[in-house]
TrEMBL record:
It is an enzyme of class 3 (hydrolase). Its cofactor is [4Fe-4S] cluster. Adenine glycosylase active on G-A mispairs. MutY also corrects error-prone DNA synthesis past GO lesions which are due to the oxidatively damaged form of guanine: 7,8-dihydro-8-oxoguanine (8-oxo-dGTP). Keywords: 4Fe-4S, DNA damage, DNA repair, Glycosidase, Hydrolase, Iron, Iron-sulfur, Metal-binding. Binds 1 [4Fe-4S] cluster. It catalyses: Hydrolyzes free adenine bases from 7,8-dihydro-8-oxoguanine:adenine mismatched double-stranded DNA, leaving an apurinic site. Belongs to the Nth/MutY family. This is Adenine DNA glycosylase. PROSITE patterns: ENDONUCLEASE_III_1 (PS00764). Coiled coil: none annotated. GO terms for biological process: base-excision repair; mismatch repair.
DNA sequence: AATACGGGGCC
DNA sequence: GGCCCAGTATT
C-alpha cells in the first residue's frame, strides 16, 4: 500500500467515520427505484445505467426498463433492437448490448442467478471493478470496494489523498482505503453512503461541509483544503468532424435510413445516410450525392441544403449539414437499410442527434 | 497508459 | 465553453 496512505490510516478515526457515514445514509438516503429491494438483477441494471450518468437522468429509463424486462429471463429473451430502443437517449449504448450479453450468460450458465463472487461476477461483459463491488456489496452484503468518481472525490478530501483521480491506476489506492474503512456489518450502506455523500454533500464544487456527517473526520476540512482536492488532470479537447446527412424521400413518401456498424460509435443504431467530408475538393452536396449513388445506387433530384446541427460527444463534435432530396427509387427492405415513414422511425433506436433531424423534418412537413 | 464511447445539466 | 456524472473495453 501507498506509504503516505498507510500512515494516514493508522491515525485515522475509522470507527467514527464508518458509524457516522452509515447512520447518516440509513437516515437520509434518497428514495430511489433500485432501492426498492436487493434483487441482484435490479441492482445490476441500475449500476450499469448509472455509469457516467446522473441519478435524475437514470430514474425514468430504469423504471421503463424494469417494466419491459423485469427479470433475467425477460432480458435474455428480448430482441436486441428492443433493448437498444429502451436505452435510446441514455448514451454509451455498448452498455446495453454488453448487459444483455452478460444477462444471457447468467441465464444460461448460472441458471439465472447473478454470480456472488468477485471472480465470477467480474467475468461478465460490462462488469468492471466498480460494478462488481457495487453488486456484491449492495445485493449480497459482501465487503468489497465500489470505487466510482464520488468515492475518489470524497476519500481524496477525507484522507487528503493527492493522487490524480483522473489517472486510472490510482483507483487502486482508493480501493485500499475503502478496504481499510468499510463496514463489515453493513457494506451496502457504507458503499452507498460514500456515493450518496458525494452526490448530496461532498459535491465537486461548493460542497455542503456544514451539513456533512463526517466533517469531524475530514482532514481536508480541518486543513482548509476542501477546494484544492481532489486533484484531477484535464482532458484534451474533442475532435471536430464535418458530416453531411441526407433526408431522402422516395415516390411512396418513405425515407431512407441505414443501420450503423455493429462496433464503434453508436453501434447498431439507425440513422439517416451520412457521409463524412474528407477533402475540400468536393462540395458538401456533391459529397452526399456521390455517397448515395455509390452506396445505394440512387439518383436524387434537387438535393438541397436544409439546415445545420451540431452535436457534442465526449471525444468529438459532429458539425452536420442536413440536405433534403427526392428519388424515384421504389421501396424495398434490406437488412442494413430501410425505407420508412417518420412514424416508423420512432419505433427504431436512433441516436439523439438523428432524432432531432427527423423531428425537424416532421415540423417542416416535407 | 491512452483512447473510444453519449448525453444532459450546471456554472 | 468546460466540467462532471454510481466506468468499461480496447488498443
Amino acid at each position: 500500500m501507498n506509504s503516505d496512505l498507510q500512515h494516514t490510516l493508522e491515525v485515522f478515526p475509522k470507527n467514527d467515520f464508518k458509524n457516522n457515514l452509515v447512520n447518516w445514509f440509513l437516515a437520509e438516503q434518497r428514495n430511489l427505484p433500485w432501492r426498492l429491494n436487493k434483487d441482484p438483477y435490479r441492482v445490476w441494471v441500475s449500476e450499469i445505467m448509472l455509469q457516467q450518468t446522473r441519478v435524475e437522468t437514470v430514474i425514468p429509463f430504469y423504471n421503463k426498463f424494469m417494466q419491459l424486462f423485469p427479470t433475467v429471463a425477460d432480458l435474455a429473451n428480448a430482441k436486441e433492437e428492443k433493448v437498444l430502443k429502451a436505452w435510446e437517449g441514455l448514451g454509451y449504448y455498448s452498455r446495453a448490448r454488453n448487459l444483455q450479453s452478460a444477462v444471457r450468460e447468467v441465464h444460461e450458465v448460472y441458471n439465472g442467478q447473478v454470480p456472488n463472487t468477485p471472480e465470477n461476477i467480474s467475468k461478465l461483459k460490462g462488469v468492471g471493478p466498480y460494478t462488481a463491488g457495487a453488486i456484491l456489496s449492495i445485493a449480497y452484503g459482501i465487503p468489497e470496494p465500489a470505487v466510482d468518481g464520488n468515492v475518489m472525490r470524497v476519500l481524496s478530501r477525507i484522507l487528503t489523498i493527492r493522487e490524480d483521480i483522473g489517472v486510472p491506476k490510482n483507483r487502486k489506492i482508493f480501493e485500499q482505503a475503502v478496504r481499510a474503512l468499510i463496514s463489515h456489518e453493513d457494506p451496502s450502506a457504507f458503499n452507498q453512503g460514500m456515493m450518496e455523500l458525494g452526490a448530496l454533500i461532498c459535491t465537486p464544487t461548493n460542497p455542503a461541509c456544514l451539513l456533512c456527517p463526517v466533517r469531524e473526520q475530514c482532514m481536508a476540512f480541518e486543513n482548509g483544503l476542501v477546494n484544492e482536492l481532489p486533484i484531477k488532470s484535464k482532458k484534451k479537447a474533442p475532435k471536430q468532424v464535418e458530416l453531411v446527412v441526407g433526408v431522402i424521400k422516395n415516390k411512396e413518401g418513405k425515407f431512407l435510413i441505414q443501420q450503423r456498424p455493429q462496433t464503434g460509435l453508436l453501434a447498431n443504431m439507425w440513422e439517416f445516410p451520412t457521409a463524412e467530408l474528407k477533402s475540400n475538393l468536393l462540395s458538401k452536396g456533391d459529397t452526399l450525392g456521390f455517397f448515395l449513388n455509390e452506396e445505394y445506387k440512387i439518383e436524387v433530384e434537387e438535393l438541397a441544403y436544409h439546415f445545420s446541427i451540431e452535436h457534442v460527444f465526449t471525444h468529438l463534435v459532429w458539425k452536420i449539414d442536413v440536405y433534403v432530396g427526392n428519388t424515384i427509387k421504389e421501396s424495398n427492405s434490406l437488412t442494413t437499410h430501410k425505407w420508412v415513414s417518420l412514424e416508423e422511425c420512432k419505433d427504431l433506436p436512433f441516436p439523439v442527434v438523428h432524432q432531432k433531424i427527423y423531428q425537424q423534418i416532421e415540423k417542416s412537413q416535407l
